[in-house]
Amino acid sequence: MSGTPNGQGLRKDLGLADVYAISTGAMFSSGFFLLPGIAAAQAGPAVILAYLLAGILIIPAMLSKAELCTAMPRAGGTYYFLDRSLGPMVGTVGGLGTWIALVFKSAFALLGVGAYLAVFVEVPVVRVALGLTAVFVILNIAGAKETTRAQRLMVWTLVGILTGFLVLGGWGLTDVGTEGVKEQLTPFFAFGAEGLISTVGLVFVSYAGLTKVASVAEEVRDPDRNIPLGMILSLATATTFYVLGVFLMVTLLDPDQLRSDLAPVATTAGELLSGTPGTIAVVLTVIAALAAFASTGNAGVMSASRYLLAMARDKHIWSGFGRLGRFRTPTPALIATGLTMALALVTLDVQGVAKLASAFQLLIFSLVNLSVVVMRESGIEAYDPGFKSPLYPWMQIAGILVPLWLISQMGWLAIFFTMGITVVGIAWYHLYPRDRLSPEGALYHVFERLGRNRYAGLDLELRQILKEKGVRQDDPFAEVVAGAPVRDLMGPHSFDVVARGAAELLAADLGIDADTVFQAFVEETRRGATPVAEHAMLPHFRSDEVSAPRLVIVRARDGVSVPEAGEDVTVHAIFFLVSPWDKPGQHLRILAQIAARLDEDGFTGRWLEAEGDAAVRSTLLEDRSILTITLLPDEPSSELIDARVRDAGLPPGVLIAVVRRGEDVIFPDGNTVFEVGDRISFLGEEEGLDAVRARLGSR
Description:
- By secondary structure, this protein is an alpha/beta fold.
- The protein has three domains: about 15-430, Up-down Bundle (Amino acid/polyamine transporter I); about 470-620, Mannitol-specific EII, Chain A, CATH 3.40.930; about 625-695, Regulator of K+ conductance, C-terminal domain (Alpha-Beta Plaits), CATH 3.30.70.1450.
- Helix content is about 60%, strand content about 10%.
- The chain is built from 27 helices and eleven strands.
- It has helices at about 15-25, 30-35, 35-45, 45-55, 60-70, 80-85, 90-115, 125-140, 145-185, 190-205, 225-250, 255-260, 265-270, 280-315, 330-345, 350-375, 395-410, 410-430, 445-450, 455-470, 475-480, 495-510, 515-525, 585-600, 605-610, 615-620, 685-695; strands spanning about 485-490, 495, 530-535, 535, 540-545, 550-565, 565-580, 625-630, 655-660, 665, 680-685.
- Strands 1, 2, 3, 4, 5, 6 and 7 form a seven-stranded mixed beta sheet that branches. A four-stranded antiparallel beta sheet has the order 8-11-9-10.
- β3 and β4 (about 535) form a beta hairpin.
- α5 (about 60-70) runs antiparallel to α11 (about 225-250) and α7 (about 90-115) crosses α15 (about 330-345).
- The two termini are about 55 Å apart.
- About 50% of the residues are buried.
């Protein structure tokens, strides 16, 4: 289990607009431009409800993938989640199977581009698809940012034209009238409940592309916000266009015409623009369709390559697919994906295989929901998603059962195809990666809770992810550091002596027994739960007697001797952290942020050279510094006495991190009132702090 090798991380170039474009672009192709007529032949007017229900039924998979993405933002998405939760065999099946499904569905989408171009001019459809495959592979090699720039252009074009389609449709309904609409919708359940249910299964796959963005989670900035929000906005967009668009098709077209029409969008547009040259409707429809099919194909190439990258990192397949090119993109994986798509286009019935592959995707949706259950029940503290699926576990139970039910509605051929891919994945696992891997995964942590074994490597990997993600906006990291007492030691010291001093400081602040604090630090250190980095260590524990995190910073210029793995290690920085028992995630994020600072080049030098307590604290606060001012009568600082924090009038970018009042440490809010003798720690960039210093003076 390797996760992200050092120096092999993908660039974080993707923002909210990119997440939205990838998710939205992956959902519009045959589902909107081809499928409505076929679906109407099974459900009648109830096809409108079928699209709405399908959009609702995808919600559990969306929420579960969003949670897993924010906890484990790694390339490979579904593969990575299944491997880390259910073990490498399930991960292998899910990774290979999803890659195969994406290859065929992306190739099918690019065939659609050629098919719609043929409306204007006769073109070799397969050759057009091959050319676009090459273009999208090259574009992806150039960088995710460049790829998503093209993706955004295609998606905004599509959304713009479809918005116009809906607006014109609403105007067109005024000519039909209320009675005309009622007539078109009657009988609503023309083929009964059975027709509706089977149609829900048919159109459900139209939303399957929503979760493709999970495979590029490693490249998303601020995944805790951008992935869930982007997916939710994307689903809202797709559901709106699907439901309202199909409503227009049902109400504006003759029922028999709709049920036999393989281009219902173009036909409906022609009805709406019947007073203008017919080519306008055709041109607009073709442009929208081209944007839809191309964006689906492009998103598929990007997503599929990340599966090969992730599996290669973990030695499930040839390690060469895990290498990055000069643009820090998975060049070998992209080339392999493109060549496989080209081979499929030339030799196979891509359309037929793509439809069968949809059943396997439904199985994966079910397993992803199971993954959330396993991760939550594993008790791994480092599993710390920035977004948590609501209504757990009922949302996940529904997400496990609904896809299995939909597979049963797709026929025996789809079921056998899904079983075939599963067998191939299991066979590959036993032939190639099995002997190279240990049977690990969060499932073993569930077993550990039942008295069996666990896999510690997963916990360490998740802690590394926490370090990469950093603290959240609402984590009081800056306040904790700014309020931390600093002990600057000279001469050699033993760890027990230093820990005793830190325990006494914390005990006085928290009002708990110093011996209890000391023993907690020592026990955590002895059982190996204290991270020891180069020249630094982080003793820590959580307690139900603590209401907010507290930190003691120790700098030892001549070193502190610490027992580690049977040897004495000399460290120059020790950070004693204690946090509330009920906030394990926040506790680990603060530790991870400190560890990330320790890993920076030149940290030890800056740490040892810092002059004064404020400078020592500032080494942990990136580009921000700390200024401490005491409120005294007859001094410039007296203007803040009896004032509230919200009325302090601070420069932009400067905040009050902590207020020390006697022996008390206060993390202020806007209503906190300053008193005489308060020592206020201001946090910000030097320019802002200089303005505070000039106004209030420092003591």
